[in-house]
Design brief:
- By secondary structure, the protein is mostly helical.
- It has a domain of about 60 residues.
- It is about 85% helix and about 0% strand.
Amino acid sequence: MKRIFILIIIQLCTSLCTMAQQQERWKFNPEEFRAKLEEFITKKAEFTSAEAQTFFPIFHQMKEEQRNLQKEIFTLKRIPKDANPSEKDYTNKIQRICELNTKMAEVQESYYKKLYKAVPAQKVYKAMLAEDIYHRMMLRQFDQRKRSNNHHRR
């Protein structure tokens, strides 16, 4: 009986260690994500190394500005549980979100103009498509990992 109990404890510990290692392996790494994104876009857009060196600093600067605007939109869309906003508060939030979305489009337009001055427009277009494809691939992988983790926990 003691042997069975000890074997069960060992098996449980082994399983927990394995699950912890899997979760540790699947943590999001922004630097790795960025490097793989650059590699994917470079391949799909058929950038030379010189074009990639010109393209990516502008591209990442655009993404940073867009991220900052998106953070503000996200914050505006959250309402604390203990808050009791008025109709005017909601109107102000909606107006600000619209302003930020307009600003987002303006940022994108200005940076795309910079990008196709730096590299051919055809390659900028291919890079845009490649970025969309890459993000969809990553979302699918994340979803599969999440499902796999949920399956292992049962």
